[in-house]
Fold these 2 entries.
Entry 1:
Amino acid sequence: MLTTELVRFKELGKQITVLTAWDAISSSIVEASGADVVLVGDSLGMVVLGHTTTLPVTLDQMLHHTQAVCRGFSKPPSKQPLVICDLPFLSYQCGEDKAVEAAGTLLKNSCASAVKLEGAEPETVLVIKRLVRMGIPVMGHLGLTPQSVHQLGYKAQARDKSGQDKIIKDSKMLQESGCFAIVLEHIPGEIASKLKKSLTIPVIGIGAGKDCDGQVRVTADILGLSSDQPPFAKPFLPGRELCINALKKWIESTNLNQESPTTNTSQSKSDY
Ligand code: KIV
């Protein structure tokens, strides 16, 4: 799918669904769910690598995980979800050349066809314009931007008038710079709704209310696998509990088999 298709979805009023994936098993599940877009988010640094922030994630790690995500798809390429990969911290903050090389490396060596980056500072806007000119589609990300955690924390953003005015100005700037869509994270729903109406590119929300052109979620949160669930991501499954119970059952069955090796022999054979 091309990134321009998402603009068509917005025009048709079709909600865009974006889920994260980080390896082959998660991408095969997300593909089968029918999500439009797979985001290989740098949240994988926290979700699967166990870091407390996204800052330690490297470009090599993003490429490694994106390649695994691509290998997990089983549909023909034209039917696969669009893959967007996060540019990790320090891969685009140090200038346009470095950003083109980082984004190009991801697109050259995986099935990703777009990158996402955070913020709308003047330097970031220059990077976005350069990437777009080089044929690399860019998704913006405003509001709670985890790569700025040491400045913003993980709390809701744009809570006062000046913060709201800034998000509105920055979103317009990202659209003018050539972004094909914008993620708005943890901001008031009224602001996201206003931007959905005023922008021509899709507004994808997470913790930004229901009135967006689409929604993005971290798949581990939806599945209830995270032990530290963000307030705006309601789990649709008690995944952690279900997994732990299944594993406990397997451990119990193993112990039972050990205690009486002669019982239920046919089942034991097929189990092992
Ligand atoms: O890294 C990520 O998973 C993200 C989403 C939360 C939007 O950026």
Entry 2:
Amino acid sequence: MADDKQELEGVTQPRTQEIESPPRRDFIRGAAAATAAVGAVTVAMHELDLVKPAEAAEGTIDGTPMAQKWWPSRWGKDDQIGATNWMGPKTTMDAVSLIRTGKVYSLGRVYEFGMPLFGQRAWVLRIPGNPTGGAYGKNQTIWHDEILTTEIGQVGTQFDGLGHIGCRTAGGMGDKSKEIYYNGHTGVDLHNAGTGPGATSGAYGLVKLGVENVRPFFCRGILFDVAGLKGRMLDKGEEITVADLKACLARQGMTEADITEGAMVCWRTGWGENLWMKDNARFNSGEPGIGVEAANWLVSKGISVGAADVWAIEVVPNPDPDLAFPVHQIFLTRNGIHILENIRLDHLAADKVYKFAFVFSPLPIKGGTGSPGNPIAVA
Ligand code: UVW
């Protein structure tokens, strides 16, 4: 074949997995460049140039949401399951009480080649053989298997576990004891399981805070239809404020009392339904979402998981160019509150379903940082 286009016989879909990463790097580089301009230090972290303050006190990063020590957790110094501690008979029965019609909504997106991905993450699925196996028996049974290469917990609709995000504190470069995660667990705790025969390095999965620890979710879900409130899709870099969330509640005939401890809350920006698999470059170029103010407000309500129709749930770029993904740290690292990204919310909004039973069981991947899956809302 003369070139790729002929070989693909007219298939014009861009190789999204290769072309999507630059736009997301651009906004982070922009933040890094702005910081460099005022004299702060920037470092390369993997492929992403993240902003790193030059000085920070022991156990903290001054001037950021991680400025105060955040451990031990409200659930005790050894806790590894964070806000899923809320899950239990009370949250289950409360969620059941919200079911009125029995209509089930899939919140998950299809996992497929060409979906938007963060950085250089990949989705490579292959079916070996055709069929993979058989035929066996007089009845001639045949079957298919698949081989999947991906960041299993960090692509498509994705649930972030507590080992996903931490904070490198002062002197942390090269010192895992200064890389601190939920409940004060350190990089040493997450990566080292002792010495001698049987010891592992964490290369085969996180030794602490793996996603297998969390409880399944069966709790109330609350939708903030911010796109409905504004009458339009929000734009990248547009921050959803506490005033916006309160205005959503009023418009939806609800009050703050509807956000009970253990609730899953989600916000619709319109970004996903308008751009996912339609304009991946724009989808990846940044996003609307909550910022530090709204994150802290939701923390004060005792939510169990924050979710949205965007790839990081939070406003990107952050209005403070020195901050990179601060809501991730406020939720996961400081408070053990989980994050659920790239979910569908348009169908709930269309049916004006603002309160529902939320059901999701993250895959118990031992040592995993997160989980794929298809969360559901039952109205
Ligand atoms: C990062 O991993 C930084 O972001 P996300 O959780 O949005 O994939």
